[in-house]
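Let us work through a complete example step by step.
Step 1: write down the sequence.
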Amino acid sequence: MNVEVILAEFNRSPRNVDNLKKYFNTVKFISSASNIFKDHPRWGWRMNDYWKVNLLLKCKEIGISFDGDMIIVSDKVKDIVPLVKKFGICLPANPRYLVGTDASIGADGGAVDIGTGYAVNCGIIAADVNNPRARELIVRFCELMLDKPERGPLVWWRAIWETGIVPYLLPPQWCVCEENIGIGKEIVLHAGHEKVRQYYNISFDSGTVR
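Step 2: predict the structure and record it as tokens.
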């Protein structure tokens, strides 16, 4: 089975390349592309949100996109492959839970008519690109991101609402943020959060957990 890992980072250096290579054989690091979001203060985040999704469409079978501050801490991360083969597309739960909450307090948010849906987290995105529903959702996300760029979870919600296609929601263990510290049976840590680094004693110098 062909599994490709995408690491798309802009305006900052990824700190988890070695960590990802311990668990996956193929890691494609993408850090250069035309700045399609011009001089917006959050152009780097927008580029990251767009390209890590767009590049999934170029994978041969299974594509998994990671942010540059995700640290894998369990072999259970490999379970993403059968999960995505079964459900087509998988994203972790957002610790802010409600789309409206994430859109209102998160950077680069916006107004949303129905804010009571479940918000996703964009730190990990896995897709079976041969699944037609997964492709449809990804394509719509990319179209919306280009038409009206906003924070990733909000654009995912808009794509989900318009298509009626709902990704499989991975539990918090798949993207442990500061709200989920100490949850137990952790699989991937969102080490971009300082409290997560402190609690789990993460060293980005080595790209590992000490």
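Step 3: interpret the result. The first strand starts at residue 3 and ends at 8.
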